[in-house]
Each structure stands twice: as structure tokens, then as C-alpha cells.
Specification:
Blueprint lengths: L4 H11 L6 E6 L4 H14 L3 E5 L20 E5 L2 H10 L3 E5 L6 E2 L9 E6 L7 H6 L2 E4 L11 H18 L12 H12 L1 H10 L18 H4 L3
Parallel strand pairs: 1-2, 1-6, 2-3, 4-6, 4-7, 5-7
Length: 229
């Protein structure tokens, strides 16, 4: 079925509010319902992509709890924590890790208006020593009851919406694509609009076709592809 103009306009409106400088890193958070709930919160806040480090042999997947959010928030998978955390630091992200220690501060006392990555571990183990060594600031969500921590998906939502609140108050929320580099915006928009064609282009090692203002592909394609666009 051809992409309807109103559908393309909806995709444009959403991508224009995405933020490339706000992300999550999940260390050994492998339960599908947690991954799904976290991706749903990422989509709601405007996070472009998230990262997950999994145990060897275990693949983090989403389930119906995501309500399709996995299509709109790219989830990058890794085997070790050091590589992804080091890469984010090199890109200018400040890493906030959920960890209860003497140096931890309340999440609401932190400034999340700059490039921010929240690093969360599995509820049973928390963050590894390798991850903690790279975290810039340990943060906690103060508890008033008997338990010391929230479910990881609830903690992720709490942190993300605090970042959203701070950025809204500071007038920093993107409205017209300011939150993404232009090339990244165009690439991600094409992937959302034409996921099958985007996969074919990647397989062929060729660039994505150009789109006009209504999302119409400006290039002749093989018939087998055109009937799916």
C-alpha cells in the first residue's frame, strides 16, 4: 500500500521531536517485558535510540508490552559495557548510573539538559564494576517505603521524564528537527516510512532514495520493490 501523505506527515512530526542527545544504556536487562516497557517510555519522551548489553547467549527482545515502540526506537545490542559506555563518553555524553552509594545524589538534583545517558542495571545485580568505573555520576531515586529501588522499567521512565521536564523548562525541546543532525534525520525518516526498502538498500550497500515533501520516492525501483512501497 502506498504511503499516505498524512502518514508521512505524522512520521515527520514525530522525528522532528526526537533527541539524539538523550539515551539509555541497559546492562544485563534481558526480560522482554522490561525491555518493552522501557522502549515505550523512550518513544513517549522522544529518545531516538537506546543501548543494551546482554549476557552471552541471551538476546534482549521486546514483547507486546512495547505496543510497537520497538519500530520507532532503535535498540543497539552489545556484548560488553566498556565499549558502548566509552563511545558515549567520547561523543560528549555524561553518564548517570543508578547505584546506591555514598557519592550518589538524588536524580532531581542533577542537570539532564546536556547530552545525557542513563545507565541502568538488572534489578538483581545492579551495575557491574566495569560500568560503575565509567559512570560520571551515581544517582538514586529516593524511596519512602521499605524497598530500596523501583522496577528497572519504572526507574527508566522516572529518569527520562525528569530529563524531559528539565528540557521543556529550559526551552530545549526540539520542534522542527533541531534534535538530530540533518543526515541522521533523513535516514531515520526513510527507515520509518519504508522499512522493507531500507533493509533492501542496506543489503545492497546502496544509499536510500530521495523523498519529496510528501514522502514519495524520487527514483525508479525494481517492480518487486515498488509494489511493496
Amino acid at each position: 500500500m502506498p504511503l499516505l501523505p498524512r502518514r508521512f506527515q505524522r512520521l515527520q512530526a514525530v522525528i522532528d521531536r526526537r533527541m539524539a542527545d538523550l539515551t539509555l544504556v541497559l546492562e544485563h536487562v534481558d526480560k522482554p517485558h522490561n525491555i518493552s516497557a522501557i522502549l515505550r517510555s523512550c518513544d513517549a519522551v522522544g529518545v531516538l535510540e537506546a543501548h543494551v548489553i546482554s549476557f552471552k547467549g541471551r538476546l534482549a527482545t521486546a514483547n507486546e508490552t512495547a505496543r510497537g515502540s520497538q519500530k520507532w526506537v532503535a535498540l543497539h545490542r552489545y556484548d560488553d559495557s566498556v565499549s558502548v559506555l566509552s563511545a558515549l563518553k567520547q561523543r560528549g555524553f555524561r553518564l548517570y548510573g543508578t547505584h546506591l552509594n555514598a557519592a550518589a545524589c538524588a536524580y532531581s538534583d542533577c542537570d539532564f539538559t546536556g547530552p545525557t545517558a542513563f545507565v541502568l542495571g538488572a534489578e538483581k545485580w545492579g551495575l557491574t564494576q566495569e560500568a560503575l568505573a565509567l559512570v560520571d555520576q551515581a544517582v538514586v531515586i529516593p524511596m519512602q517505603g521499605m524497598v530500596q529501588s523501583l522496577n528497572v522499567s519504572v526507574a527508566a521512565a522516572t529518569l527520562l521524564f525528569e530529563a524531559l521536564r528539565q528540557r521543556r523548562s529550559a526551552g530545549l525541546l526540539p520542534r522542527a528537527g533541531e534534535g538530530l543532525p540533518r543526515e541522521l534525520r533523513q535516514r531515520r525518516l526513510f527507515e520509518w516510512a519504508y522499512p522493507e526498502l531500507a533493509a533492501w538498500c542496506r543489503q545492497q550497500g546502496r544509499p536510500y532514495p530521495q523523498l519529496d515533501g510528501e514522502g514519495v520516492i524520487q527514483e525508479e525501483l525494481p517492480r518487486s520493490l515498488r509494489i511493496r512501497c
